[in-house]
Amino acid sequence: MKLFYATGTCSLSPHIVLLETGLPFDVEKVDLATGKTASGADYLSINPKGYVPTLQLDSGEYLTEGPAIVQYVADLVPQKRLAPPAGSMERYRLIEWLNFISTELHKAFGTLFHQAPQETKQAARETLAKRIAIVDKQLRTHEHLAGNQFSVADAYLFTVLSWARPLKFDLSGWPAVQAYLQRVAARSTVHAAMVAEGLIKA
Questions:
Q1: Cβ atoms of residues 82 and 74 within 8 Å
Q2: Domain limits of the chain?
Q3: Closest C-alpha among 169, 171, 176, 165 to residue 199
Q4: Where are the alpha helices (DSSP H) in 52-198?
Q5: Which CATH architecture best describes the domain 2-80+190-196?
Q6: Residue 180: helix, strand or coil by DSSP?
Q7: Which one, of 29, 31, 107, 94, lies nearest residue 67 by Cα?
Q8: Can you list the residues of the chain whose pLDDT is less than 70?
Q9: Does CATH place domain 89-187 in 2.60.370.10?
Q10: pLDDT per residue over 125-152, tens digit each?
Q11: pLDDT of residue 179
Protein backbone atom coordinates (compact mmCIF):
# COMPACT_ATOMS: atom_id res chain seq x y z
CA MET A 1 0.00 0.00 0.00
CA LYS A 2 1.05 3.58 -0.52
CA LEU A 3 -0.34 6.64 1.25
CA PHE A 4 -0.28 9.96 -0.59
CA TYR A 5 -0.09 12.73 1.99
CA ALA A 6 0.59 16.42 2.50
CA THR A 7 2.12 17.82 5.66
CA GLY A 8 -0.30 19.50 8.05
CA THR A 9 -3.42 18.01 6.50
CA CYS A 10 -5.94 15.33 7.45
CA SER A 11 -3.75 12.68 5.80
CA LEU A 12 -1.98 12.41 9.15
CA SER A 13 -4.97 10.38 10.36
CA PRO A 14 -4.57 7.37 8.02
CA HIS A 15 -0.78 7.64 8.45
CA ILE A 16 -1.26 7.05 12.18
CA VAL A 17 -3.69 4.20 11.55
CA LEU A 18 -1.33 2.49 9.11
CA LEU A 19 1.43 2.62 11.71
CA GLU A 20 -0.97 1.21 14.32
CA THR A 21 -1.63 -1.84 12.12
CA GLY A 22 2.03 -2.73 11.71
CA LEU A 23 1.39 -3.48 8.04
CA PRO A 24 4.04 -2.55 5.46
CA PHE A 25 3.30 0.60 3.48
CA ASP A 26 5.00 3.41 1.62
CA VAL A 27 4.28 7.13 1.70
CA GLU A 28 4.61 9.74 -1.01
CA LYS A 29 4.33 13.45 -0.38
CA VAL A 30 2.06 15.60 -2.53
CA ASP A 31 2.60 19.26 -3.30
CA LEU A 32 -0.99 20.45 -3.36
CA ALA A 33 0.01 23.80 -4.85
CA THR A 34 1.62 22.28 -7.93
CA GLY A 35 -0.41 19.09 -8.06
CA LYS A 36 2.75 16.99 -8.28
CA THR A 37 3.87 14.09 -6.12
CA ALA A 38 7.41 13.71 -4.80
CA SER A 39 8.18 11.34 -7.69
CA GLY A 40 6.93 13.90 -10.22
CA ALA A 41 3.59 12.24 -10.97
CA ASP A 42 0.48 14.26 -11.77
CA TYR A 43 -1.57 13.88 -8.60
CA LEU A 44 -4.83 14.63 -10.39
CA SER A 45 -4.31 11.47 -12.40
CA ILE A 46 -4.22 9.60 -9.09
CA ASN A 47 -7.01 11.46 -7.32
CA PRO A 48 -9.06 13.82 -9.54
CA LYS A 49 -10.42 15.47 -6.38
CA GLY A 50 -6.99 17.02 -5.94
CA TYR A 51 -6.75 16.67 -2.19
CA VAL A 52 -5.29 14.14 0.23
CA PRO A 53 -5.35 11.48 1.51
CA THR A 54 -5.31 8.82 -1.17
CA LEU A 55 -4.41 5.21 -0.46
CA GLN A 56 -3.12 3.05 -3.26
CA LEU A 57 -4.11 -0.52 -2.46
CA ASP A 58 -1.99 -3.57 -3.18
CA SER A 59 -4.40 -4.32 -6.05
CA GLY A 60 -3.44 -1.00 -7.66
CA GLU A 61 -6.84 0.56 -6.93
CA TYR A 62 -7.06 3.95 -5.24
CA LEU A 63 -9.21 4.72 -2.21
CA THR A 64 -9.97 8.30 -1.20
CA GLU A 65 -11.65 10.09 1.73
CA GLY A 66 -10.06 9.74 5.15
CA PRO A 67 -12.97 8.08 7.01
CA ALA A 68 -13.24 5.40 4.30
CA ILE A 69 -9.48 4.82 4.23
CA VAL A 70 -9.08 4.39 7.98
CA GLN A 71 -11.95 1.89 8.17
CA TYR A 72 -10.54 -0.08 5.26
CA VAL A 73 -7.12 -0.24 6.91
CA ALA A 74 -8.60 -1.15 10.30
CA ASP A 75 -10.51 -4.04 8.77
CA LEU A 76 -7.29 -5.50 7.35
CA VAL A 77 -6.14 -6.31 10.89
CA PRO A 78 -9.28 -6.75 13.04
CA GLN A 79 -7.20 -8.15 15.89
CA LYS A 80 -5.79 -4.66 16.47
CA ARG A 81 -9.32 -3.48 17.35
CA LEU A 82 -8.92 -0.15 15.60
CA ALA A 83 -12.57 -0.41 14.58
CA PRO A 84 -15.38 -2.57 15.97
CA PRO A 85 -16.67 -5.44 13.82
CA ALA A 86 -18.70 -4.46 10.76
CA GLY A 87 -22.42 -4.64 11.41
CA SER A 88 -22.13 -4.15 15.17
CA MET A 89 -23.76 -1.26 16.98
CA GLU A 90 -20.32 -0.22 18.16
CA ARG A 91 -19.23 0.10 14.51
CA TYR A 92 -22.15 2.38 13.76
CA ARG A 93 -21.21 4.50 16.78
CA LEU A 94 -17.70 4.76 15.37
CA ILE A 95 -19.09 5.83 11.98
CA GLU A 96 -21.26 8.35 13.83
CA TRP A 97 -18.14 9.93 15.38
CA LEU A 98 -16.20 9.85 12.10
CA ASN A 99 -19.02 11.72 10.39
CA PHE A 100 -19.22 14.22 13.25
CA ILE A 101 -15.50 14.95 13.02
CA SER A 102 -15.67 15.26 9.23
CA THR A 103 -18.70 17.50 8.93
CA GLU A 104 -18.68 19.48 12.17
CA LEU A 105 -15.01 19.86 13.12
CA HIS A 106 -12.92 19.31 10.00
CA LYS A 107 -15.14 21.52 7.88
CA ALA A 108 -15.23 24.35 10.44
CA PHE A 109 -11.47 24.32 10.93
CA GLY A 110 -11.11 24.33 7.15
CA THR A 111 -12.96 27.63 7.01
CA LEU A 112 -10.35 29.17 9.31
CA PHE A 113 -7.51 28.04 7.04
CA HIS A 114 -8.90 29.74 3.95
CA GLN A 115 -9.64 33.28 2.88
CA ALA A 116 -13.11 34.21 4.12
CA PRO A 117 -14.93 37.26 5.51
CA GLN A 118 -14.28 37.86 9.20
CA GLU A 119 -17.95 37.23 9.96
CA THR A 120 -17.71 33.81 8.35
CA LYS A 121 -14.62 32.93 10.35
CA GLN A 122 -16.21 34.12 13.59
CA ALA A 123 -19.25 31.95 12.89
CA ALA A 124 -16.95 28.98 12.30
CA ARG A 125 -15.21 29.62 15.63
CA GLU A 126 -18.54 29.75 17.43
CA THR A 127 -19.62 26.50 15.79
CA LEU A 128 -16.34 24.86 16.76
CA ALA A 129 -16.78 25.90 20.38
CA LYS A 130 -20.18 24.23 20.52
CA ARG A 131 -18.98 21.06 18.80
CA ILE A 132 -15.79 20.74 20.86
CA ALA A 133 -17.91 21.03 24.00
CA ILE A 134 -19.71 17.86 22.85
CA VAL A 135 -16.38 16.08 22.42
CA ASP A 136 -15.17 17.30 25.81
CA LYS A 137 -18.28 15.91 27.49
CA GLN A 138 -17.65 12.50 25.91
CA LEU A 139 -14.00 12.52 26.96
CA ARG A 140 -14.80 13.29 30.58
CA THR A 141 -16.01 9.72 30.99
CA HIS A 142 -14.12 7.91 28.20
CA GLU A 143 -10.40 7.53 27.70
CA HIS A 144 -10.90 7.61 23.94
CA LEU A 145 -13.60 9.04 21.70
CA ALA A 146 -15.50 5.85 20.93
CA GLY A 147 -14.89 4.21 24.30
CA ASN A 148 -11.78 3.09 26.16
CA GLN A 149 -10.02 1.55 23.15
CA PHE A 150 -7.94 3.64 20.75
CA SER A 151 -9.70 3.62 17.39
CA VAL A 152 -9.52 5.20 13.97
CA ALA A 153 -11.80 7.94 15.29
CA ASP A 154 -9.04 9.00 17.68
CA ALA A 155 -6.50 9.25 14.88
CA TYR A 156 -8.89 11.54 13.01
CA LEU A 157 -9.93 13.61 16.03
CA PHE A 158 -6.34 14.13 17.12
CA THR A 159 -5.39 15.24 13.61
CA VAL A 160 -8.19 17.77 13.34
CA LEU A 161 -7.82 19.17 16.86
CA SER A 162 -4.07 19.59 16.33
CA TRP A 163 -4.95 22.39 13.93
CA ALA A 164 -6.12 24.51 16.88
CA ARG A 165 -2.58 25.61 17.71
CA PRO A 166 -1.54 27.03 14.31
CA LEU A 167 -4.97 28.64 14.00
CA LYS A 168 -4.69 30.14 17.50
CA PHE A 169 -7.93 28.49 18.56
CA ASP A 170 -7.80 28.29 22.35
CA LEU A 171 -8.69 24.85 23.77
CA SER A 172 -8.06 25.78 27.41
CA GLY A 173 -11.79 25.83 28.13
CA TRP A 174 -12.02 22.08 27.55
CA PRO A 175 -9.70 20.30 29.99
CA ALA A 176 -10.81 16.81 28.99
CA VAL A 177 -9.90 17.58 25.39
CA GLN A 178 -6.50 18.90 26.43
CA ALA A 179 -5.74 15.81 28.52
CA TYR A 180 -6.90 13.60 25.65
CA LEU A 181 -4.59 15.30 23.16
CA GLN A 182 -1.65 14.74 25.49
CA ARG A 183 -2.54 11.04 25.84
CA VAL A 184 -2.82 10.50 22.10
CA ALA A 185 0.32 12.50 21.32
CA ALA A 186 2.24 10.19 23.66
CA ARG A 187 1.49 7.13 21.49
CA SER A 188 4.59 5.96 19.65
CA THR A 189 2.68 5.66 16.36
CA VAL A 190 1.38 9.21 16.57
CA HIS A 191 4.85 10.53 17.35
CA ALA A 192 6.34 8.52 14.47
CA ALA A 193 3.76 9.77 11.96
CA MET A 194 4.31 13.38 13.00
CA VAL A 195 8.08 13.02 12.73
CA ALA A 196 7.78 11.34 9.31
CA GLU A 197 5.65 14.22 8.02
CA GLY A 198 7.96 16.88 9.41
CA LEU A 199 5.45 18.18 11.94
CA ILE A 200 7.79 17.66 14.90
CA LYS A 201 11.42 16.77 15.37
CA ALA A 202 12.48 13.27 16.31
A1: yes
A2: 2-80+190-196, 89-187
A3: 165
A4: 66-76, 89-100, 107-113, 118-139, 152-161, 175-185, 188-196
A5: 3-Layer(aba) Sandwich (3.40)
A6: helix
A7: 94
A8: none
A9: no
A10: 999 999 999 999 999 999 999 988 999 9
A11: 98
